[in-house]
Amino acid sequence: LNDIIFQVGRTGVVTPVAVLEPVLVAGSTISRATLHNEEEVRRKDIRIGDTVNIEKGGDVIPKVVSINIDNRPADSMPFETPRNCPVCETPLVRIGEEVAIRCTNTTCPAQVQGRVEHFVGRNAMDIEGFGPAVTEQLLQEGLVRNVGDLYTLTHEQLTSLERMGERSADNLLRSIEESKQRSLDRVIFGLGIQHVGERAARLLAENMRSIEALKGASSEQLESIQEIGPTIAQSVASFFGNQQNCEVVDKLREACIAMELPGAEASAPEQPMAGQIFVLTGALERFTRDEAVAHIEALGGRVTSNVSKKTNYVVAGENAGSKLKKGLALEVPVLTEDEFGKLINK
């Protein structure tokens, strides 16, 4: 372990990251691994200079799982929690009983970049061409201060960026314009409200039907929505209680972003899977994971990450792992990809 650095996420959470001597793990070279949070580092007594054991969590995210104390250097020093944000120097705080430490400066460059990257992402506004390098340049040049500024960018401003030619600028502006047609749930998800994932964003959009109604809703009103608990409700209310966030929403409205659902259709779509819970495992050939989830939710079902006695179906693709085994042990019905296709097309 060569160093411990700190990354600032879009919500201000400061996460310790292990900088490692490059090592091959499960077919890829790993030089960084998550340390999760300050409490985890202290509990495992991880120090710079330690020899550590790492694994890929869920075969995706590398993480430090333990240390080899016998190889610890004699001059190693215990981990020290930073007092200030590593990017903007704002004093860090711990809110309530949270384990995480946070930078509370919403204009922190790292947070702004994280929020922009989240907003333009595939599952939110899906604006192609907005890689980290482009986002970083726009922030450095002062052309973008929040996601609302994306819709006032000009061709001249974009072509002034490094490695941004005429055609690339045209394509990016076209993609920005096309994003104005994204659905309300994707707009809500793109705002990056803490604890509001894609599923919660869909529920909020379906029940509140407009950003204005969502903005004016109390925590109690939001909690009355099935599957929306107090944590999400309070987070949404807090988000819209922040004047800076409301100003960003106003910019999006001025840019003609979809701020409400279209009028109710003559008849509501059938939802034959209403209340049913699915777990997806393994690789599907005919569907991406997002497509499979979209089909299930459009028919009233929902997808969870863990198998339990409440699970109605496990959809098993190629190389299905422990979720399939657990489903079989709990006698949960298992669907092949073909069977799943027939079910959603009934």
From TrEMBL:
Alphabetized InterPro entries for the sequence: BRCT_dom (IPR001357), BRCT_dom_sf (IPR036420), DisA/LigA_HHH (IPR041663), DNA_ligase_CS (IPR033136), DNAligase_N (IPR013840), Hlx-hairpin-Hlx_DNA-bd_motif (IPR003583), NA-bd_OB-fold (IPR012340), NAD_DNA_ligase_OB (IPR004150)
Keyword Protein biosynthesis attributed: no
Transmembrane segments: none
Pfam families (alphabetical): BRCT, DNA_ligase_ZBD, HHH_2, HHH_5, OB_DNA_ligase
Domain BRCT stretches: 268-346
Assigned keywords, A-Z: DNA damage, DNA repair, DNA replication, Ligase, Magnesium, Metal-binding, NAD, Zinc
Keyword S-adenosyl-L-methionine: no
A GO term for molecular function: metal ion binding
Needed co-factor(s): Mg(2+)
SMART domains listed in its UniProt record: BRCT, HhH1, LIGANc
Matches recorded under SUPFAM superfamilies: BRCT domain, Nucleic acid-binding proteins, RuvA domain 2-like
Cellular component per GO, a single term: cytosol
GO biological process: DNA repair; DNA replication
Function: DNA ligase that catalyzes the formation of phosphodiester linkages between 5'-phosphoryl and 3'-hydroxyl groups in double-stranded DNA using NAD as a coenzyme and as the energy source for the reaction. It is essential for DNA replication and repair of damaged DNA.
Alphabetized NCBIfam families for the sequence: PRK07956.1 (NF005932)
Protein name, as recorded: BRCT domain-containing protein
